[in-house]
Structure formats: structure tokens, C-alpha cells
Amino acid sequence: MGVLLSLSFITMSCFCLAMEKHRKQIIMVELNACLSCFFRPLAWVLLISTFYMSSQLYGWTIGPVVFFGMLIGSLVPLILLLTYRAKAIPLVAILLPIVVYIS
Known about the structure:
Layout: H1 2-18, H2 20-26, H3 33-36, H4 39-84, H5 89-102
């Protein structure tokens, strides 16, 4: 479950970085156009792979439910971080899989 939660958080963080408004909140460095266009396809690939992984781990009957639950579970902290501590999102996106792997 932790792997799905961390993948969902990274996916939604990539979607946030794909939007100019949120990208300006999260990182102060101006990215070139090629790099900023990279985040949206990466986020979609991660979203599809997270859905597939959830379906493989829990089966096609309960897997999509777990996927949407993990998606909501990762969106709530992401929304709170965007509201109060937007600069911490890259750090959390990097540290969350490491913490899940260690535990």
C-alpha cells in the first residue's frame, strides 16, 4: 500500500509541475519549455502504471477501488502542502518512496 501511496503522490506532484501556476508555487527556477512539457506525459505514464500495479496487486475487482483510495489519500496531503508549504513538495516526493522502502 505504501508503494501505491508514494507513486500516487509523485504522480500528482508531476501533474502540479505540469501546470504553470503550481510550478511557480513549487519551484522558483524558471524551466525551459522542453522540460516543462515533460511533466504531463510523465504524470500520465505514472498514473496508468499505478493503476496497473494496483490491479495486479489486489485483483481487478478491488484494485481500482484501492487505486482511487490511494489517489485520494495522496491528494489530501498534496493539497495541504500546496496551500501552506508548497516548497516542501519536491522534498516530500523524493523522501516518501525512500521512507516506504525502508519501513
